[in-house]
Specification:
The structure holds 2 protein chains of 2 kinds.
Chain A lengths: L4 E3 L5 H11 L1 E7 L5 E5 L4 H24 L7 E5 L3 E10 L2 E10 L5 H18 L11 H15 L3
Antiparallel strand pairs in A: 1-3, 2-3, 2-6, 4-5, 5-6
Chain B lengths: L1 H8 L4 E8 L5 E6 L5 H22 L7 E4 L4 E7 L6 E7 L5 H13 L3
Antiparallel strand pairs in B: 1-2, 1-5, 3-4, 4-5
Helix pairs in contact in B: 1-3
The chains are: A alpha+beta, B alpha+beta.
Chain lengths: ~160, ~120
């Protein structure tokens, strides 16, 4: 298991570890659409996790709204590819509520096809592993900072 | 495009033919028998093609024009196509005992035709 893969909710750890290994992804976040991080892989600084989670949540929200205005169901996945690096962002439904996966991959070791292929497996594994009958916990503004600090402490082993 | 794939799949023992984007490993066009997962084959072919291209460049042998991966239950045959032979892959999925020469010929024809 990669020392750089950590989870706030432990049921996400094995599916994420498998995905990182098989898809050769450099950075991965599993998060809720509100930006609450459940697991991460490859990040070395808390500030990077916070930034990536906030940006991913913003993209999920803005594309969701765009889809709503177009009277379409929410987009399943979004991909952006640069000359050397690509990122893939997708959402799926579990018993834990809607989750998003953000994966960053280097084009010399992986590809969109590989990431998409193993993302399907990751989504299936997370759906199967998610706690049944769990009601997604609402993060209140008053608890936000404490929740965030606790999550980051878990994700970076502090 | 589909005519080129049609000629490949007419060869006895070929279970499917695909055009795959070499850069991202996505399916551009496909004619596959039921049970073959096109997205998985495309991702595998593009991943192997990319690594093979870099290894061949490093070893100074030039571009690959055809490669054949033999497995227990089938074979993957690939010809790079498109600009500088790097844009598209013409891929055949075949049974282990397929006539490799004939499939190679049809793959090269499809690649030369620009698919």
């Amino acid at each position: 298991m990669s020392p750089h893969t950590r989870a706030v909710e432990t049921w996400t750890l094995q599916p994420l570890t498998d995905f990182v290994r098989e898809a050769s992804a450099r950075l991965v976040l599993v998060l809720t659409p509100s930006g609450q991080v459940l697991a991460q892989s490859g990040f070395s600084r808390a500030v990077d996790v916070m930034s990536a989670a906030a940006l991913a949540a913003a993209i999920v929200a803005s594309t969701g709204e765009l889809a709503r205005q177009l009277r379409q169901p929410p987009f399943a996945a979004l991909s952006h590819q640069g000359p050397r690096t690509g990122f893939f962002l997708a959402t799926f439904l579990t018993d834990r509520g809607t989750l998003a996966v953000l994966a960053v991959y280097d084009l010399d070791v992986s590809s969109l096809g590989i990431v998409q292929l193993f993302y399907e497996q990751l989504a299936a594994d997370l759906k199967a592993a998610s706690p049944k009958g769990a009601v997604p916990k609402q993060v209140l503004a008053a608890d936000f900072e404490r929740e965030l600090t606790d999550s980051l402490n878990t994700l970076f082993g502090r | 495009m589909s005519a080129a794939l049609d000629l490949i799949t007419r060869v006895r023992g070929v279970r499917g033919a695909m055009l795959v984007s070499a850069e991202d490993g996505l399916v551009v066009a496909e004619q596959l028998m039921e049970g073959i997962k096109g997205s998985a084959v495309a991702a595998l072919a593009a991943s192997l093609a990319g690594r093979l291209r870099r290894a061949m460049e490093a070893s100074g042998t030039g571009r690959s024009v055809f490669w054949h991966l033999q497995a227990e239950q089938g074979a993957l045959l690939v010809v790079p196509s498109g600009e500088e032979s790097g844009n598209l892959l013409v891929v055949a999925v075949a049974e282990p005992d397929v006539n490799i020469g004939l499939v190679r010929l049809e793959l090269l024809r499809a690649a030369e035709a620009g698919t």
